[in-house]
Structure formats: structure tokens, C-alpha cells
Design goal:
The chain has 244 residues and is mainly α. The protein is 69% helix and 0% strand. The protein contains eleven helices and no strands. Helix 2 packs across helix 9 and helix 6 packs across helix 8. About 2% of the residues have low confidence.
């Protein structure tokens, strides 16, 4: 089975093995590449370097490219922070080197110091929406304006403008990372809306969360589902979610 980890080699009666089998049944419509890429993003979110290495091998085996893998890691920087992501960058480089790939890979940056702010603001507005971005700037106190500028120039200008992955894929990765981090419910809601803005569907987001469930646990998964329902509620949905 592609995308297996040590947990999937446990005895068939193991509850760990059962959770993996059930996830695969419920994510059958999600492309395997997408499932593995979002799972890699979630591994960074929860800080699981050892499991990341194993899943990275599976992802490369089924055709996720070295450039795509490196872009998953770079996309995590503004969300998980450099302190956490550096360990995953080193793990990625070691895995690629072990597989005979020559580093560094071709660069994917498309902006310069002179263009990153303007291009970042443009892609931020495309993803988040003009009114939302304008409100962020308008409502930020004067001494916090620089944070909004960094968000536009760095998070969006330095990352979302990169080649190697398209914007809808980057948004799915971001959604997976934020769900895995925990404690980022407002940002999860924001990126549910952003995913819908760039063409990802409610069904895709549910499938992604289902694929993350064995790795991030029920509380974070249920919190992310609540965020999803708050932005795009299904007809007749109950008012609240069961806590776990």
C-alpha cells in the first residue's frame, strides 16, 4: 500500500491499523499525491520529524517531485515558524541526498526585494479577498502596521508567488498545517474561505481532514471541521460538534 508508515505494519486488529484503513476508504476520491502532500504538511505542523521522513519516502515513490517536497517545507515557514521547519528542511535534504538527488534544487522564487510587496499584496487579495485585506490594514493599530506589511510581503510575496506548486495546492497545504498546529482556529476559518476562493471544494477539505485524522487526532480534526462548517455549513448541519 502506498503512503504506509510503521503504524500500518502493525497487526490487523490494532486500532492504529484500523484508523489507517478507514481513512483510506473515506479518502478514495482524494488523489493519493494530494493526500500524501497534505499529510507531509501536517507532520510539520505537529513536529513529527521521524514520521515525516517515512511519509516523505512514500510520497517520492508515488511521484511527488523533489521540487514539490521542498516547496511543502518552504510553505510551512510562515505558519509553523523557522525554528520548527529547519529540522524538516534538514530531514528533506538528507532524504533527497540518500536517493541520489543533487542539491541545491533549481530555485523557485519569482519575486525580488523590489517586487515582493506589490506582488504579495496582489496574491493576498486574490486569495483572501480585497475587502478582507483592506480591513486588516485599516483596523491594525499604527504600531502594528508593519506586521500587516510583513504578512503581505513575506507570507504571500515570498511564498505564495513561488513556482513549483500552484496556489490552490499551497492553500490546501496551509489548511493542513494550520489544522495540525492546533490553537489556530481563526486562521483555519480564514483559510477555509481562502481555499473556497481559489477553487478547492468543501468535499476536498473534508477529505484532507479525514486523511490527517490519524496523525493529528480527533480534537484538532473536530476543531477544523467546526471551522469548516462555520464558513460553509452544510444544509441541516447541527449547531455544534461533539467534543473529544
Amino acid at each position: 500500500m502506498s503512503g504506509c508508515s510503521p503504524a500500518t505494519s502493525l497487526a490487523s486488529r490494532s486500532p492504529i491499523r484500523s484508523s489507517f484503513d478507514e481513512v483510506l476508504r473515506h479518502t478514495a476520491d482524494l488523489p493519493e499525491r494530494t493526500r500524501l502532500m497534505t499529510q507531509l504538511a501536517a507532520m510539520i505542523g505537529v513536529g513529527a520529524v521521524a514520521e515525516y521522513r517515512i511519509m516523505l519516502g512514500a510520497a517520492l515513490t508515488i511521484g511527488v517531485t523533489p521540487v514539490e517536497v521542498k516547496e511543502i517545507v518552504y510553505q510551512a515557514v510562515p505558519y509553523a515558524g523557522m525554528a520548527r521547519v529547519f529540522d524538516f528542511l534538514h530531514a528533506t535534504n538528507a532524504t533527497l541526498t540518500d536517493r541520489g538527488m543533487r542539491l541545491p534544487l533549481e530555485g523557485q522564487s519569482t519575486t525580488t526585494p523590489a517586487t515582493r510587496m506589490a506582488e504579495g499584496l496582489a496574491v493576498q487579495k486574490r486569495i483572501v479577498g480585497d475587502e478582507t485585506v483592506d480591513a486588516l490594514y485599516a483596523n491594525a493599530p499604527k504600531e502594528q502596521q508593519h506586521v500587516q506589511e510583513l504578512l503581505s510581503a513575506n507570507c504571500f510575496g515570498d511564498h505564495y508567488t513561488r513556482a513549483g506548486l500552484d496556489v490552490p495546492t499551497r492553500e490546501l497545504l496551509t489548511f493542513a498545517m494550520l489544522a495540525a498546529l492546533g490553537g489556530a482556529d481563526a486562521q483555519v476559518r480564514g483559510h477555509v474561505a481562502a481555499n473556497l476562493n481559489v477553487g478547492n471544494t468543501r468535499a476536498t477539505l473534508i477529505a484532507v481532514l479525514t486523511g490527517l485524522l490519524p496523525f493529528i487526532g480527533y480534537p484538532r480534526t473536530l476543531n477544523a471541521l467546526s471551522a469548516l462548517d462555520a464558513v460553509t455549513p452544510p444544509p441541516g448541519a447541527p449547531a455544534g460538534k461533539e467534543e473529544a
